[in-house]
Structures are given as structure tokens and as C-alpha cells.
Amino acid sequence: MSDSLITHIKKYVPLNEQEISIIKECVQELAVKKKEYLLKEGQICKANYFVEKGCLRMFFVGNKGEEQITQFALENWWISDYNSLMSQSPSGFYIQTIEPCSIIALTHQQHEKLASYVPAVEQYFRIIYQRAYSAAQQRIKYLYDFSREEMYRHFQQHYPTFVNRIPQYMIASFLGFTPEYLSEIRKKKQ
Amino acid sequence: MSDSLITHIKKYVPLNEQEISIIKECVQELAVKKKEYLLKEGQICKANYFVEKGCLRMFFVGNKGEEQITQFALENWWISDYNSLMSQSPSGFYIQTIEPCSIIALTHQQHEKLASYVPAVEQYFRIIYQRAYSAAQQRIKYLYDFSREEMYRHFQQHYPTFVNRIPQYMIASFLGFTPEYLSEIRKKKQ
DNA sequence: CGCGACGTTGATTTGCCTCAACGATTGTGG
DNA sequence: CCACAATCGTTGAGGCAAATCAACGTCGCG
């Protein structure tokens, strides 16, 4: 197993050798091909997923049958349907790889076990979730404040990586509008 | 100090008497009048606030000068600008009481201190933030999926308490549309 | 090579906003 | 305790951002 998760945790909390080996015992490494699913609608989300390498999307199917992307995940991001994971209830989301991925999976049960053996991990996740929630607060602000065009300009400036790595129609979906409208914006001024 | 915070923490993690008294030493209770501010734009957010009694709103001022509400907080909710709080940077938000409130404040510094003395508190906040983030995931889904009218119907059904406690124009703002349009929806069918 | 996925373009439609005006209700100072 | 202002909710006319629909060019891949 690559050490990208351990390295990531160490950025936030200290770990000794014994704790590192406990963590490695509690998680599971997965190699996932392009366009495979870690979660489908109706399933109970099995784990919290850490991206070692690759790129994923989370989406749901809207009432007109279209795939609505709500988030992407790149290297060193955690992704899951936390509602489904915590309450062990069926999910309304899909999680799918966009590229071939190397993923580390931490199940609900293994998290509990790990937290009791290694309190620093609990602190790590407190920080991770606090940051995730903070980012969600900002994102909700943008969803209220920005026009669709402003959303695109903002995204383009802040996440140029994504624009080169992800197809246009997925970016349009994530930003909450149609591929046609994205074309129109891009035509105006690039 | 009322025990509503202690009671709330005990719902998620066990606490002994000593831990309870440490917690009480680390927090500060505030009585806040109606329409007063816990945070204004440009300030660094001083604390994480727990609502013992009363009701608050968080908002920002949009580019046309209007107050855009992004969340409400009722009894037993935590509210703060977590980005400002964590990075000690100026906030883009206001937090204001809607009713007279009894609030418990936990500063960034006091949180650190408390976490080192009482690990259970770190676990409590891990759970709180995970739930908050989970709720934000759901909320973002609704923002993509629902029309403005569906947003209102959904809100009305799931949070009838708010509809009776909070003025219409604030509900319209929170749901992301104008008071005029809310009138139109209500006229259709109630 | 040929097919399907992706991106673009233009015509038309629509959900919701803006603006302006007018009742109703609440609060406040004289 | 009343007069008057300010705040809040409603109604209607007109306008705009973005969606929908349909058609067409293009590229990558089996």
C-alpha cells in the first residue's frame, strides 16, 4: 500500500509507528477501473473512500432522468454519501470513477474500531469534516450569490486542473446548467 | 448555566463528572437580545456558538445589496463561520439573533484546550461535523434538483416549526427567491 | 471506415425577477 | 390611547437569464 493516506493524516495529527500499522490493518486498498461504481442509488454506502490516485464523481438522477453531478474527488480527497454511511440507509447517489483509480476504503465498522484504538484518528476526522463542512458553507454561498456564468468563471479560475481533466458536459452538470449554455459562455470570451 | 449542552453531548458520547466540569470551564454563556450580531462581515469569527434557547440566522450581503440568508439555527444547533473560525480570517457573513437568545460560546483556543483534556469532546465534534456535512450534501442535492416552488413545499412539510416562527421574507431569502414569488406560490394552493 | 459520444449553434419558451403600487399589520412617540 | 410611520405581505405588468428542442460538425475508438 502506498503511504499517501498516512502522509495525509500526518499533515494534521502526529502518529507513531504502532498507530500507523493499526491504521493500515483497518483499511482496504482497491484498484478500480474507469467508469466503475463504488456506490449506486438504492445501495447502502459501504465505506468512506480516500482517493490515492485518480478522479471520481458523485451524482444523482434528477426528475427528468438527467445525471446531476454534485461533487468531484481528486487525489487526497475523501468521498462518500455520509448520510447513507452513518445511518446505514439506502443512498440516493451514485459514486463512479472517471479515471482508473487507486482507492483506500474505510468501512463504518472499521472506523469505529480504529477510533477506539487510535484517538488521533478521531481528531483527524474532526478536522477533515470541519473543513468539508466549511467548504460546503462557502459552496452554498456561491450557489446563492453567483449567476451561472459567474459560477463558470469562478470554477475556471480556482480549479484549472479540473477543466483539463474532466469533460465539458460533466463540468456543466456540476455547475448546475446545460452543456449548451456552457458553449454559449465559452464563445463570448475565452 | 443550563445543562442543555451537556445533555446534548451525552446523547453522542459518555462523560464523567470531572469532564463535565472541565467543559463548563471552557465555555462562556451569553444572553443576547433580539436583532443583535454575534458576527459581522469583515470580522474574524470569535467562536462556535451553541443555541440553548432562541433562533438565529446567518446571511451575507449579495452583489445587489440584499441580505441572503444561508442558514437558520434553533435550539441545540451549533452555528459559526467555520472557514473564518478555523483559519482566523475575515468572514463574509453576518450571524444575527432573530429572537432573544441564550447562547454558549466556544472559542477556537478553548476548543483546542478542551480537546486535549477531554478526548470524548473531539469524538462528539467529529460526529457533529460529519452530520452537518451530511446535511449539507443533502441540501446541495435539493438546490440542484428542486424548482423554487418545490423548495418551498419541501421546506413547509419538513420544517413547519420555522414557518410559524420566522417571517415570510426570511424564508423566501433562505429558499433563494423573492418575497413576491413566495406570495405567488402561496396563492396557488395552500 | 463507421458509429456513438461530445461539443456547438440558433430559435423558441419559461421560471422567476424587477419594479411599482397598494393593503394590512405592527410598533412607537406624542 | 391614538396617529402616523415603518415594516411586511400581496398583486400585476413587463423583462431577462437560462432551459428546451432540434440540427449539425467533429472527434476518438472499436
Distance between the termini of chain A: 42 Å
Percentage beta strand of chain A = 15-25%
> H/E order of the elements of chain A?
HHEEEEEEHEEHHHHHH
Largest interface: A-B, 34 and 34 residues
Number of strands of chain A: 8
What oligomeric arrangement do these chains adopt?
homodimer
Question: In words, what does this structure look like?
Answer:
Two copies of one chain form a homodimer. With 190 residues, chain A is α+β, with helices and mostly antiparallel strands. Chain A is built from nine helices and eight strands. The first copy, chain A, is 50% helix and 22% strand. In chain A, helix 4 (108-117) packs across helix 5 (119-145). The longest helix of chain A is centred in the C-terminal third of the chain and has 27 residues, at 119-145. The first copy, chain A, is globular. At the A-B interface, helix 3 and helix 5 of A face helix 3 and helix 5 of B. The structure holds a DNA duplex (30 and 30 nucleotides).
Q: What keyword list fits this structure?
A:
9 helices; 190 residues; homodimer; DNA-binding; alpha+beta; 4-stranded antiparallel beta sheet
SSE layout and pairings?
The structure is a homodimer of 190-residue chains.
Chain A: H1 4-10, H2 17-26, E1 28-32, E2 37-39, E3 47-53, E4 56-61, E5 67-73, E6 78-79, H3 82-87, E7 94-97, E8 101-107, H4 108-117, H5 119-145, H6 148-158, H7 160-165, H8 168-175, H9 179-188
Antiparallel strand pairs in A: 1-8, 2-7, 3-6, 3-8, 4-5, 4-7
The first copy, chain A, binds a DNA duplex (30 and 30 nucleotides) through residues 147-149, 167-169, 177-184, 186-187.
